[in-house]
């Protein structure tokens, strides 16, 4: 029996670090063979495209509103088109010297929109405040008082029209959608049928056919002698369209309320409307706020279609600015990129906001 | 006698819910009927006053306009109904091809959000945010402008073998239809039936004996081999109508016009962003433990995705996916903005020529309603089946 002597074994090497930027790159970019291969392929692709795009859009770009400079060989993007035409692109055919009015009206409306997104505005006075803001918007835009020149609605255009169309349609669609959503779940067969038919009819056709209807057929609907402004007709069309989609979203929220709550409310002696107003709607609406936000985003994008029925909102105003100007027409793609950026800025911030709201709504449920 | 009357009285009082329900419904229906009658009456009076003719009899008249592209021959002497048929076929063509491409691209992007490669994840995210936050109309206009501006004139057409790319679009050799091709098609059908039968047999054997047979490659081979054999029996016809450069245009061959390509590209890229989100949320809805359990059983990450996660995610994915397909079909109506002759564009032309707004818009709505409602019915049935059951 040999005496056992203590012999220490070699220390294990420290485990590979999983923290820090280098480890992150190793795990996320070169985790295994396929991941590494993908990284190389994607990087090669990006290296082929991005420098060229950057050089076109920034390094070789012409920034000044001078179309001769844009025609020089080797010049990349011609942002001069934006510098030259931004007033028409943003404000459409609104009289040039009066364009401070849409700027003011839209700024107030945007401020109100942003304010309405914060908690401190979620009070009872929000609705009257909105009515005041909308009245202010229309008064300033239309003019015809206090020395302001009258501007007919067919000259309104650009970003103010886009923002006004989407905001106003959304607000008017909301109460309709709520009633229709309740109606679709009503126990009365006639009302249920009417609401279902409305929702399915509208959701079954493209917005453009509704707009065609508002623009071509609506004048026929009115009694002789009554003519309604095309802007109002389009707002009605978009509102009815948006209401159908929103009704489906709200119905989804209503469906998620357990039946027991409604039965409990009935036991307490609450009437139908009391039950809906005090028990069902507050929960259901809170649940569907993110989806309503998504609805609003798609509505904001959909307003671009009114250009097809000759209202010059942002997309239409670009055509207005460039189609008739042979000097600048070749640089339309830069103009498109510019308004695409405007749309992106609005929609992206709204979708970020919707994520924030979702978190706020779920705060009570988080454990 | 006396004890009956109060009961009857109570039954038809405002306190009775059934009674109020009936009254409300009668009220609502009569208000709506009155509104519809008011609008219809005004329309008729207005049409009479302005001398607008009505009715669908114009469909039998000669259309008097040419259509840029059509799957079957059409010229300006043909009737309106045929013009509408061309429009409907064009709408369906771009919608069906678009749906197929969107599904592929969207699924790849959605699954890419879960890639272990951070670059791939980031790219997929950037794509989704970039394409879904810009209106589809703007994207269509941009694609159309890019295609028409950057494509070369006919004289300097880019040539890839038998393919030409020029202002006229993508021109490709068109196979000439011969009787032998019918044999090939029949062979493919027979191959599909045989392949499915083999799959079924192999699956039954697997359940009985546990022996695993190829479920994909062997049926595919059966499908292809049967098709080729039948085509070969039919005389193996292989004649193409090759395009050739003429003086002013590229003659012969089939063409994908820039309008078609722009609509297809725009719709596919836009809708794919939404489909990617649908796929992502579907995959996220599968409990994480499922994937971990599958990994513990030794499945490869790709197998986990294909065999465990995706089949469960599909239940969540299918309803919103159908909605996206419907959206794509409805958005194809925007083709009118860039001059692709879809049904809306044809209706718009015929509206301007005949002045029959009501009829033209009604036809457009009917076409879209038929496609949407049939899908919607299916979805409602599915929704009712999958909703949480309560007493």
Kindly describe this structure.
The complex is a heterodimer of chains A (367) and B (391). Chain A has 367 residues and is mostly helical. Chain A folds into two domains: 20-59, no CATH class; 84-94 and 151-365, MetI-like (MetI-like fold, Orthogonal Bundle), CATH 1.10.3720.10. Chain A is 69% helix and 0% strand. Chain A is built from 14 helices and no strands. Chain A is flat, with a radius of gyration of 29 Å. With 391 residues, chain B is mostly helical. Among the domains of chain B are: 19-50; 80-135 and 261-386, Orthogonal Bundle (MetI-like fold), CATH 1.10.3720.10; 179-231. Chain B contains twelve helices and eight strands. In chain B, helix 3 packs across helix 8 and helix 8 crosses helix 10. Chain B starts with a helix and ends in a 5-residue tail after the last helix. The chains are: A mainly alpha (367), B mainly alpha (391). At the A-B interface, helix 1, helix 2, helix 8, helix 9 and helix 12 of A face helix 2, helix 4, helix 5, helix 11 and helix 12 of B.
């Amino acid at each position: 029996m040999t005496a056992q002597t203590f012999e220490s074994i070699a220390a294990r090497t420290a485990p590979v670090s999983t923290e820090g930027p280098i480890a992150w790159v190793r795990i996320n970019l070169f985790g295994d063979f396929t991941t590494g291969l993908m990284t190389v392929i994607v990087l090669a692709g990006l290296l082929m495209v991005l420098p060229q795009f950057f050089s076109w859009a920034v390094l070789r770009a012409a920034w000044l509103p001078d179309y001769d400079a844009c025609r020089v060989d080797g010049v990349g993007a011609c942002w001069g088109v934006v510098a030259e035409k931004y007033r028409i692109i943003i404000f459409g055919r609104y009289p040039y010297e009066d364009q401070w009015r849409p700027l003011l009206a839209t700024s107030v409306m945007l401020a109100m929109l942003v304010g309405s997104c914060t908690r401190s505005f979620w009070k009872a006075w929000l609705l009257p405040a909105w009515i005041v803001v909308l009245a202010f918007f229309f008064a300033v835009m239309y003019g015809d008082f206090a020395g302001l020149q009258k501007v007919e609605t067919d000259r309104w255009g650009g970003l103010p029209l886009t923002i006004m169309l989407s905001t106003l349609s959304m607000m008017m669609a909301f109460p309709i959608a709520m009633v229709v959503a309740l109606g679709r779940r009503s126990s009365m067969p006639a009302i249920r049928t009417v609401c279902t038919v409305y929702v399915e009819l509208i959701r079954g056709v493209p917005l453009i056919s509704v707009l065609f209807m508002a623009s071509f057929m609506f004048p026929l609907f009115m009694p002789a002698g009554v003519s309604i402004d095309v802007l109002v007709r389009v707002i009605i069309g978009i509102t009815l369209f948006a209401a159908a989609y929103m009704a489906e979203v709200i119905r989804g929220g209503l469906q998620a309320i357990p039946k027991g709550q409604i039965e409990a409310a009935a036991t307490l002696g609450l009437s139908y409307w009391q039950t809906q107003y005090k028990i069902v709607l507050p929960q259901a609406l809170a649940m569907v706020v993110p989806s309503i936000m998504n609805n609003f985003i798609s509505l904001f994008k959909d307003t671009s279609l009114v250009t097809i029925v000759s209202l010059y909102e942002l997309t239409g105003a670009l055509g207005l600015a460039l189609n008739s100007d042979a000097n600048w027409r070749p640089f339309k793609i830069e103009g498109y990129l510019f308004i695409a950026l405007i749309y992106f800025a609005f929609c992206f911030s709204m979708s970020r906001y919707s994520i924030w709201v979702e978190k706020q709504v779920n705060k009570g449920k988080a454990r | 006698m006396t004890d009956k009357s109060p009961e009857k009285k109570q039954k038809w009082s405002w306190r009775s819910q059934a009674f109020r329900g009936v009254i409300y419904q009668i009220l609502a229906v009569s208000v709506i009927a009155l509104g519809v009658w008011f609008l219809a009456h005004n329309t008729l009076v207005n049409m009479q006053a302005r001398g607008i003719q009505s009715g669908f009899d114009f469909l039998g008249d000669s259309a008097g306009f040419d259509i840029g592209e059509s799957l079957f021959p059409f010229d300006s002497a043909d009737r309106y109904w045929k013009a509408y048929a061309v429009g409907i076929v064009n709408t369906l063509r771009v919608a069906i091809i678009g749906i197929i491409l969107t599904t592929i691209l969207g699924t790849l992007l959605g699954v890419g959000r879960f890639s272990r490669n951070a670059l791939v994840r980031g790219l997929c995210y950037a794509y989704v945010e970039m394409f879904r936050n810009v209106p589809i109309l703007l994207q269509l206009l941009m694609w159309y402008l890019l295609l028409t501006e950057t494509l070369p004139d006919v004289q300097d057409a880019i040539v890839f073998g038998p393919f030409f790319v020029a202002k006229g679009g993508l021109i490709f050799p068109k196979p000439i239809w011969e009787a032998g091709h019918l044999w090939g098609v029949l062979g493919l059908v027979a191959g599909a039936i045989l392949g499915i039968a083999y799959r079924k047999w192999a699956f039954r054997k697997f359940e009985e004996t546990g022996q695993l047979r190829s479920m994909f490659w062997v049926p595919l081979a059966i499908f292809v081999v049967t098709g080729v054999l039948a085509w070969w029996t039919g005389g193996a016809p292989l004649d193409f109508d090759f395009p050739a450069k003429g003086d002013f245009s590229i003659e012969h061959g089939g063409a994908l016009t820039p309008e078609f390509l722009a609509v297809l590209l725009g719709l596919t890229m836009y809708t794919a962003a939404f489909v990617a989100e649908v796929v992502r949320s579907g995959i996220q809805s599968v409990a994480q433990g499922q994937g971990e359990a599958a990994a513990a059983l030794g499945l490869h990450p790709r197998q986990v995705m294909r065999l465990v996660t995706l089949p469960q995610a599909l239940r969540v994915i299918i309803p919103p996916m159908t909605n996206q397909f419907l959206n794509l079909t409805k958005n194809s109506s925007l083709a009118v903005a860039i001059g692709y002759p879809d049904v809306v564009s044809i209706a718009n032309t015929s509206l301007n020529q005949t002045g029959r707004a009501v009829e033209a818009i009604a036809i457009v709505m009917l076409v879209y309603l038929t496609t949407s409602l049939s899908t919607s019915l299916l979805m409602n049935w599915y929704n009712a089946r999958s909703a949480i059951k309560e007493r």
